[in-house]
Amino acid sequence: MSALSSPDNDEIIFIADIGTTTIKASLVSSGATGSDRNSGALLASLSEKNAQSVFGLDVISRVLYAHHNGVEPLQKKVLSQVHDMLKALCVSADVQPESVSRSIITGNTIMLHLVRGLSVSGFEMAPFTPVSLGEAEEVLFGLPAYFPPCIDAFLGADAVCAALYAISAPEARFPLLLADVGTNTEIMLFTSSAFEEGGAGTYDKLSLTCCSTAAGPAFEGGVSGGRYTGSELVHMLAELLKAGTMDETGLLLEDADSSSASESGFLLAQNDIRQLQLAKGAVSAAVDTLLQEAGLSVGDVGSFVLCGNFGSALNTEEAERIGLFPEGLSSVARYAGNAAELGARLLVSDGMKVLAKKIAASGKLIQLADSRFFARRYIERMNFGS
Q1: Tell me, what CATH number does 52's domain have?
Q2: Where are the alpha helices (DSSP H) in the chain?
Q3: Secondary structure E strands in 148-216
Q4: φ, ψ for residue 154, nearest 5 deg
Q5: Which terminus of the chain has a lower count of CB atoms within 10 Å, N or C?
Q6: Domain count of the fold of the chain
Q7: Which residues of the chain have pLDDT under 50?
Q8: Is 67 in contact with 121 (CB distance < 8 Å)?
Q9: How far is residue 378's CA from residue 384's CA, in Å, rounded to a whole number?
Q10: How far is CA 236 from the centre of its chain?
Q11: Any domain includes 260
Q12: Sign of CA dihedral 319, 320, 324, 329
């Protein structure tokens, strides 16, 4: 847990980003800064493993649990944890709980359904029909709670908040490509800026193409018994290619044993590499598909923003070398941290709420399962190398 000093006489707001694996929460002070972008000063922050993991490690397991037992046990579990986090943050920031005036709760679409006690039966099979995608205002822990809008079943409010943070950054250059790589990878392409002309608050030129793809758990510790981080896996694959002990099809050659060992001494097995091929092929092909839909090439991209845990220690040049991202993106890449929570902090501003709604409403969603281009490019992108 981290804490900073609290400004006097400012509104104190509780922020929570409820992820499937991790919940990140913070207290922010909303002062009259005169800037939408800087309206949430951090007072304290905290991160914990999502206690719902006792019902299943992934969202599908929790949806199935809810099918047999209802959503109430899952809702109670997460609300109890989030309430405890709120109280812990108040202690850390040395503020009284009654001083907290409101809350902003973001997360993926399924997690927000579970927090709000909404049925998740619509997520059990295609075409996946959420009960609610729009923004909502409710009361949690005696506080008014704002839930940002979602885009679809697998592009949630966390993706909207991450996009809000990325496109409003002073360093943003357009077209802007945003990627949160994980078990469910969200990719968003903004081809014009909400701030290009007329300043913040106009939003008239915002254009978004987006998709999500099931990359599987490979880059989140889902291979080799979870012994590696995603960035370490990328590094190992890049080194295998560089050393010539793995060919472009992913086949480990006879002298690969020493090169496929990590610093901790574990080996990367052939089956691990095959899982990684499927994951990186899906991610790279999804990027290609968004660019193709927008009529753009890699060279047109002004900013490539990575967010989430996977991007924190990722060497983007190595990621490009193994073909996780199309060649040319590493030169405009930057890491934006936990952009979902950072974007949620911006929602203390009414102007940023307007932009969040614009992002959710304007997105042109590409269904990759229906795209012949994606299917063809997916096969091509499974080979290693850009």
Answers
A1: 3.30.420.480
A2: 59-69, 72-93, 109-116, 157-167, 230-243, 270-294, 316-321, 339-346, 350-362, 372-381
A3: 176-180, 184-192, 207-214
A4: -120, 15
A5: N
A6: 2
A7: 4-7, 32-35, 194-201, 258-259, 264
A8: yes
A9: 12
A10: 24
A11: yes
A12: positive
Question: 109 with 188, same domain?
Answer: no
Question: pTM (2 decimals)?
Answer: 0.90
Domain-located, residue 155: no
Q: Is 35 exposed, middle or buried (0-12, 13-18, 19+ CB in 10 A)?
A: exposed
Domain shared by 216 and 322, yes or no: yes
Taking the CA atoms of residue 328, residue 360, residue 148 and residue 284 in that order, the dihedral angle to the nearest 10 degrees is -30
Instruction: Collapse the DSSP code of 274 into the 3-class scheme (helix H, G, I; strand E, B; otherwise coil) and give the result.
Output: helix
| Residue 123: HSE in the Cβ half-sphere, 13 Å Cα cutoff | 29
Residue 7 confidence (pLDDT): 44
The answer on 327 and 220 residing in a single domain is: yes
**Across-strand partners of 44?**
3, 27
What's the pLDDT at 271?
87
Q: How far apart are CA 90 and CA 78, in angstroms?
A: 18
C-alpha 11: how far from chain center = 28
How far is 318 from 339, CA to CA, in rounded Å? 22
- Count the residues in the chain: 386
Q: Is residue 233 part of a domain?
A: yes
The residues with which 208 forms a beta bridge, in sequence order, are 190, 363
Give dist(CA 107, CA 147) in Å, integer.
Answer: 9
Whether residue 152 is contained in a domain is answered as no
Can you give the pLDDT at residue 295?
94
pLDDT at 183: 78
Q: What share of the chain is helix, strand, coil (3-state, %, to 5)?
A: 40, 20, 35
Query: H/E/C letters for each residue in 52-117?
Result: HHHHCCCHHHHHHHHHHHCCHHHHHHHHHHHHHHHHHHHHHHCCCHHHEEEEEEEECHHHHHHHHC
Considering the domain architecture, whether residues 279 and 218 belong to the same structural domain is answered as yes
Same domain for 70 and 42, yes or no, is yes
> Is the bond preceding residue 326 a cis peptide, omega within 30 degrees?
no
d(CA 260, CA 23): 34
Ramachandran category for residue 167: left, alpha or beta (phi over 0 → left; psi -120 to 50 → alpha):
alpha
- Categorise residue 56: left if φ over 0, alpha if ψ from -120 to 50, beta otherwise: left
pLDDT at 17: 96
